[in-house]
Amino acid sequence: MSAITTINKIKSYGIKAKKKYGQNFIFDENILFKIVKKSKINEKINILEIGPGPGGLTQEILKANVNQVYVVEKDKELLPMLNEIKNLYPNKLKIIFEDALNFDIKTLNDFPFKIISNLPYNISTVLLIKWLTGDICNTSCKSLTLMFQKEVAERIVAKTGSSKRSRISLISELYTNPKLVLNVSSGSFVPKPKVDSA
Fold it and tell me: Is 0.85 surpassed by the pTM of this model?
């Protein structure tokens, strides 16, 4: 799906990003490709994506060597766009209409999986802490490739001695080996956020 197609699809469906859901949609195809590449899908695996929005990242993931892609979306207005993608990949895409904060990722344990998401800004840190302190250790999850506001990403990866070191740095370091792998300018999103992402 090209950048023009993504923006046109949003317009044709009359979709407007909702602040209450922390929505900012990536339309830059090059960035979508890089996100999937950085997630290193080297084996047949399941993928969980939170907040797929219009499905740009979803389609890029579906092109990779994946078994099944599970998308969790709370905004019912986006379901017709996601169903359009499901029609292209009927046996590979499973749409779950639910609040990501209530979704039990342990239900995906039948098969190894990775989480790849441009997380909704308003729940990104809450969700990461929930996963790391409760759910992830009891699952077959192999890795997380997650987009955050840049300042949040920098706090997640901050090492001892850094002024950006915080509670989330400690939690992330305890359960994972966090790395910042990609900076994304605000111009890659619609609507354009006030800050860059990573």
Answer: yes
Contacts of 89 (CB under 8 A, 6+ apart): 62, 69
Pair of tokens at residue 80: 């017709």
| pLDDT tens digits, one per residue of 147-179 | 999 999 999 999 999 999 999 999 999 999 999
Best CA proximity match to 26, nearest among 43, 45, 51, 48: 51
- What DSSP string describes 131-162? IIIIIGGGS-EEEEEEE-BHHHHHHHHPPTT-
List the structure tokens of 192: 């354009």
- Cβ neighbours for 153, distance < 8 A, ≥ 6 positions apart: 180, 197, 198
Listed residue (179, 180, 155) closest to 167, CA to CA: 155
